[in-house]
Amino acid sequence: MQELILPTLNEYLFVSGLLFAIGLAGVIVRRNIIVIFMCLEMMLAAASLTLVAFSRFHLVGGLPDYDGQMLVFFIITVAAAEVAVGLAIIVSLYRARQTIHTDDLTSLKG
Amino acid sequence: MPSPLFYLFALLMVAGGLMVVLMRNPVSSALSMVLSFIGLAGLFIGLNSYFVGILQILVYAGAIMVLFIFIIMLLDVKKEEKDNWKGASVAAGVAIPLVLLIQLAGVLSTVKASPKVPTINFEQALQHTNAEGALMYKEGTMIHKRLSAERLSDTHLIGHKLFTDYNFPLQVIAVLLLVATVGCVKLSKKSAPAVAMAASPPNTAPPAKSEPKTPVKPEPEPVVVPPLKKPSVAKNLSEDPPLHTTTDHKRGLIYTERPDDADDLKVISGIGPVLEKKLNDFGIYTYKQIADWSDENISEFDDLLSFKGRITRDSWLTQAAELHTKKQA
After folding, report:
1. Touching check for A42 and chain B: CB below 8 Å?
2. What CA–CA distance (Å, rounded) separates B35 from B28?
3. Which of B135, B247, B321, B324 has the most CB atoms around its CB within 10 Å?
4. Angle formed at CA B113 by CA B111 and CA B118, multiple of 5 degrees
5. Are A12 and B9 a contacting pair, CB within 8 Å?
6. What's residue A54's pLDDT?
7. Closest CA of chain A from B141, distance in Å
């Protein structure tokens, strides 16, 4: 049986960049504030992938560099808190305006 | 032979991400996001980060996405209409990420030999010492046992790291979670005006809608006012028409010139400076005019200002009636 050629660091970085770009496109194109928020989460997750990839490709004492994974751990925690607060804001926004479309939420712009 | 699993999970992740952006229904977006995160978790596990991979599935695909779906259901979000995708924003949304990707590809292509996955060296890990020269993973511990058996127990290793080097950040993150919890409770609690707003539509909307179809002579509107307001208001609302006005069958009462007591319509949530200008052009200057609109007037102004149902959605009538009573008092 042939030996597997494992993906290199560049491939991981490119895939993560792709996910980030998709998330960015969603944030720019979409008008639904909840979907925009989901795309933001996707961009955050893409950043986590680069951190984990760097952690695996940089050995410290023969083991993956766990500092990178600690950062991912904290990112996930902060993201959870951020989602809870963000969704609470969206709910109160909806309560005040009965809409979650960014086109209708223009009171700052006038 | 290239590793098929990497490509499978990467494809899953990217396809899920694309579907989040392209699906019009927010629920489909949320479910595609779960798919995307499962692919991402697969990539994490392929990188020997089992703990982070499971965390990704538990926290993101589990908790966070359920929260999203919950909110979508709660808010009863409608499908986005096709015309909501504006040409300019689609162009920007394609061009900017594309530039980013090209830049990334350019940078990555300059790397001659992309780093290969290094093999984990268990021997070296067992000999690894900290700054003081003591062994990092002491004999007799679970980590030592697993490493001797050539197994990467990354949960133990992360726990070790978390409670030694990262002890302080862990405490800080605990405070952050507390702050977020308190913030959520505070945010989702209804503030006093919000309570009034939420309480008034059921009381006032039906009378406003069932107003006489012929709005020529304004009748007393007993219930437009929330219950807490004084009864004298009803009289105020039924005063004789002011000067310089005409009564249009379609548009209700309109001023032919700007009255002295013109109100600041921007106070009504949903009306900005642009809309106020438009309304003034149509001869709408006071809260009372808006409060007195009939169903027919509402649909007329909906057409004139070219939005679909925003007047009722933002409950202008209720707001205007409240503001009018406040002004009278």
Report:
1. yes
2. 11
3. B321
4. 120
5. no
6. 94
7. 17
Residue environment code for B76-107, b if the CB has 16+ CB neighbours within 10 A, otherwise e: ebeebeeebeeeeeeeebeeebeebbeebeee
- Burial code (b: 16+ CB inside 10 Å, e: under 16) for B156-171 equals bbbebbbeeebeebee
Query: pLDDT tens-digit profile of A24-68?
Result: 999 999 888 899 999 999 999 999 999 999 999 988 888 888 999
Kindly give the residue spans of alpha helices, DSSP state H, lying in A1-110.
Answer: 9-29, 33-57, 66-97
Q: Using CA atoms, how far apart are residues B188 and B191, in angstroms rounded to an integer?
A: 9
- A105 contacts on B by Cβ (under 8 Å): none
Domain residue ranges in chain B: 1-77, 124-187, 245-328
- What's the pLDDT at A68? 92
Q: What does pTM read for this prediction?
A: 0.68
Judging by DSSP bridges, how do beta strands A59-60 and B245-248 pair with one another? unpaired
CATH for B1-77 is 1.20.120.1200
Across the strands, what pairs with A76? none
The ipTM, to two decimals, is 0.92
CB-CB neighbors (< 8 A) of A42 in chain B: 17, 20, 33, 36
Interface mutation vs chain A, best among B13, B37, B79, B135, most A CBs within 10 Å: B13
CA-wise closest residue to B209 among B96, B67, B130, B311? B311
The dihedral through the CA atoms of B38, B41, B47, B49 has a sign that is negative
- Does the pLDDT at position B235 exceed 70? no
